User: Which sequence fits this backbone?
């Protein structure tokens, strides 16, 4: 898998899980994890379990995760996180292969979207309208 696409998939997928993953072991995180049960949560935990030791060993990566968690809509914070994860994966080929394997498993399970502007849902999506693409206009 292309390293840039791999990092994009990982950061995009983990974004809503960061607050819970970073508080692993705390009561609030445990309660949240009960609500987040399922393949998506299992995949997020597996990815973070692999990444966490490398992130914790590198202060710049730790800060990037914290900033992206505090401000998930901040494009600069997301870019800094992607850069730090790219560096970590470039430094450890075995880790990169393992992360790629977990992402591919998540894609096969339908919990990680793949491709540019991909959208993935888990559970019941009855009545949901999803529009992707540039310049779309709905109704008038």
Assistant:
């Amino acid at each position: 898998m292309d390293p840039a696409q791999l990092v994009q998939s990982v950061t995009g997928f983990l974004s809503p899980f960061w607050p819970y993953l970073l508080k692993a072991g705390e009561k609030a995180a445990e309660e949240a994890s009960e609500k987040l049960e399922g393949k998506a949560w299992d995949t997020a935990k597996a990815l973070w379990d692999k990444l966490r030791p490398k992130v914790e060993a590198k202060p710049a990566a730790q800060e990037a995760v914290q900033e992206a968690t505090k401000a998930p809509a901040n494009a600069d914070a997301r870019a800094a996180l992607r850069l730090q994860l790219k560096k970590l994966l470039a430094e450890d080929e075995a880790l990169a292969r393992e992360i790629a394997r977990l992402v591919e498993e998540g894609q096969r399970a339908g919990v990680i979207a793949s491709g540019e502007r991909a959208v993935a849902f888990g559970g019941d999506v009855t009545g949901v309208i999803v529009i992707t693409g540039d310049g779309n206009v709905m109704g008038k």
Confidence is low (pLDDT under 50) at residues 120-125, 136-140.
